[in-house]
Write a structure and sequence with these properties.
alpha/beta, nine-stranded mixed β-sheet, Spore Coat Polysaccharide Biosynthesis Protein SpsA, Chain A, 7 helices
Length: 246
């Protein structure tokens, strides 16, 4: 099919082979936009036929948007190094008539794993990843970006997301997202009150355990709910600290 896979990487030698082989089942071109990796990510990607373009990290959205104009195809499949196409996603993509479709983009449900545990709390987590680059593209705003279009069709298909090897890695990585979220909010001029850390932390816990049913998903539901609540609490605590240090 005339689809270009667009993968952003930074030291992903453990993942890059599997994700490239996954997308090659539906893509005839693979672009790897590498943020100056120090491991063997680039060598492995090139050995599998991918085109590697080195670009210092610009932010999630800008980095994903960077590769689109360099693709030979009009349709782009954006996928992270820790993601894979499920069998149903491969079949769904093959069944799309990209030349005649009235849609500018297609979304997938995402099944996220911590280690071997499927986190039901986060499913379906719809993500728009297959898009027509001449009609739309990734936003270049800070933080986690998205494809900016309303003309999107939801596919009954899954992306597999192997986000963390274990809960220890999840806790360690959460620090990065907490800091980034606080910085973005602070740069936008948002203010936090002394009550916000507590209110948002409790709110995140209630949402995860009760509204989304995490309390009934066993220990994995509770683990994710507590980590999410802590992350929300600390984001606003950091915002308060930034305000006090101005």
């Amino acid at each position: 099919m005339n689809i270009t896979a667009n993968i952003i990487t930074l030291n992903e030698e453990k993942n890059i082979e599997k994700v490239i082989k996954s997308v090659q089942k539906v893509c005839d071109e693979v672009l790897v936009i590498d943020s100056l990796s120090s491991d063997k990510t680039c060598e492995i990607a090139e050995s599998l036929g991918a085109t590697v373009i080195k670009q210092a990290y610009l932010g999630d959205g800008p980095q994903k948007a960077f590769g689109a104009p360099l693709a030979k195809n009009e349709w782009i499949l954006s996928i992270d190094a820790d993601e894979r196409l499920d069998v149903n996603a491969i079949e769904a993509i093959k069944n799309i008539d990209l030349e005649k479709t009235p849609y500018d983009a297609f979304s997938f449900s995402r099944k996220t794993y911590v280690g071997k545990a499927f986190i039901k709390l986060w499913y379906p987590d719809r993500v728009t990843r297959l898009y027509k680059r001449t009609a739309c593209g990734f936003t270049t705003a800070g933080g986690h970006a998205r494809v900016d279009t309303n003309n999107v069709k939801g596919l009954e298909a899954d992306m597999l997301h192997y986000s963390y090897s274990d809960y220890g890695e999840m806790i360690k990585t959460s620090h990065k997202f907490i800091t980034r979220g606080a910085n973005i909010a602070h740069e936008k001029g948002k203010k936090a009150s002394a009550f916000d850390p507590f209110l948002h932390g409790i709110g995140a816990l209630f949402k995860a355990l009760i509204l989304k049913g995490g309390a009934f998903h066993g220990i994995n539901g509770w683990n994710v709910a507590v980590i999410s609540a802590f992350s929300s609490y600390m984001k606003y605590a950091l915002m308060l600290e930034m305000q006090e240090n101005e």
